[in-house]
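Usage example:
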Amino acid sequence: GQQLNQSPQSMFIQEGEDVSMNCTSSSIFNTWLWYKQDPGEGPVLLIALYKAGELTSNGRLTAQFGITRKDSFLNISASIPSDVGIYFCAGLTGTASKLTFGTGTRLQVTL
Amino acid sequence: NAGVTQTPKFRILKIGQSMTLQCTQDMNHNYMYWYRQDPGMGLKLIYYSVGAGITDKGEVPNGYNVSRSTTEDFPLRLELAAPSQTSVYFCASSYSGGTHGYTFGSGTRLTVV
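Running the assembly step on the lines above writes:
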């Protein structure tokens, strides 16, 4: 089946630093989504992208739909302790009725 | 709105026991999904449903069963629990099959001993 590879697998950063992570696939997707999972909770949708090249922001978060439609990127600026969690990308093809999720990037923020 | 509600939040089962994980949503979503998340790992799809009366297997369906008799409810049944089924289980729903994302429940943490 389709796979989404996220990198890095985990990150340890200091408060105030910027974070970049990405998600790549061998298949084309029509929709890219980014989720955050807080410890002990279910994932929550952060950003949705629907068009190749699209750049969308949500506060300190910015995500991009790659031009090739096979990748997506998430940036977090000026990280804070509550950014800790697991970030998942997810993709949807045109005819599918279910998302394909990435492997996750675990973010740790130190003071 | 409550969104997606999962019960119980925690459960310990003995090997060979059975149980049903409950999931209900109040958003009138047609699509519902069950995922499992093993420690430090991503989400694996167990079963999903595109509407009442319709269910389909995901990537890891063995050892589980589902039913979808109403739009609101999508219970997950474990028969003959095994240690390999120790995991956190998430239910999710969506209006459009994922185009606008899923709404997830807060999870059921299951331990099989």
